[in-house]
Structure formats: structure tokens, C-alpha cells
Design brief:
Length: about 160
């Protein structure tokens, strides 16, 4: 059972995501759903009684088939916004990993179906992409060697 709590006008989500680099650390993998204008880091919801490290490994294996990646916690993001009729509160633990396999396509569909599009992007061109929660946060995480904590409040 996913850790997502909904009551009347409020929603809480506990999720994990991954900043996945290629072997030479020049590219990162981003995810985009077909109907969205923005990219985000791959990941998903943590399940009840599941550790965040187990959750990120499970999500990346389910979505991409990558199962040999070691992940380290690099950031915590707390996001508050209003969307789809809900006051949202989301906690996202962001992990870093390095994909050591060969990249044959810079763009590909995920294992979840054709709606899930993935793209390897050059980290020097990250500002050319609209990324959720913000491109600045992702850039800051890439440039830092310390665990970061971000709080984003929209519409307050």
C-alpha cells in the first residue's frame, strides 16, 4: 500500500526519487509523462513498512529494469502546493546513483508503458529543461557534495 493519505481537501505523499548519472557523470536521467510539460526525477511512492532505500531500488527496477545501482541519499525535498483540488504536502527523499550499463538510446519508453518517457540529458544543458519541483533545485543537488534540504511552497 502506497504511503499516500487523502482526506477531504488535503493530500500527503511520501515518495523517493533518483538522480541517476551515466558512468562518466556527464548526463542524468529524467522522466516525463506524456501529458506533462515538465520533467522530473524517476521514482515513486514509498509503500507502507518499506524503507526509502528499498523503495528507490524497487521503483527504479519496476520502471527501468535497472537493478545493479547503488543509491546514496543526497537531498530531502518538502513540497507544499495546491493542485487538482488538493492542498498537497509531499516529502521526497532524493537518492544519487550511477548507471554503469551502456546507453544505446538517449530517449526511451519505460517499462510502465508508452506514457512513461525517459531522457538522458547533458548536465551542462539542464537549464534548457523545465524540471519539477524546480530546475534550480536539481542543479543545486548536482553541484553539491552535501545532503541538501529544500522546502518549496507554492501559492501561499
Amino acid at each position: 500500500m502506497d504511503l499516500k493519505i487523502i482526506n477531504e481537501y488535503n493530500q500527503f505523499i511520501y515518495r523517493v526519487s533518483a538522480l541517476i548519472y551515466n558512468q562518466d557523470l556527464t548526463k542524468i536521467l529524467l522522466f516525463k509523462a506524456e501529458n506533462r510539460e515538465w520533467y522530473m526525477l524517476p521514482g515513486g511512492k514509498v509503500q507502507m513498512h518499506e524503507t526509502s532505500t528499498d523503495a528507490i531500488k524497487r521503483e527504479i527496477k519496476e520502471e527501468l529494469g535497472f537493478n545493479e545501482i547503488h543509491f546514496d541519499l543526497i537531498a530531502i525535498s518538502e513540497e507544499f502546493n495546491y493542485s487538482r483540488g488538493f492542498n498537497n504536502h509531499q516529502i521526497d527523499l532524493i537518492y544519487k546513483g550511477i548507471y554503469k550499463g551502456q546507453i544505446t538510446n538517449n530517449e526511451f519508453k519505460g517499462l510502465d508503458g508508452d506514457w512513461a518517457c525517459y531522457k538522458w540529458i547533458d548536465i551542462n544543458k539542464i537549464n534548457n529543461y523545465k524540471i519539477h519541483p524546480t530546475t534550480d533545485i536539481i542543479s543545486n543537488i548536482i553541484e553539491s557534495n552535501n545532503i541538501k534540504h529544500f522546502i518549496t511552497k507554492e501559492g501561499n
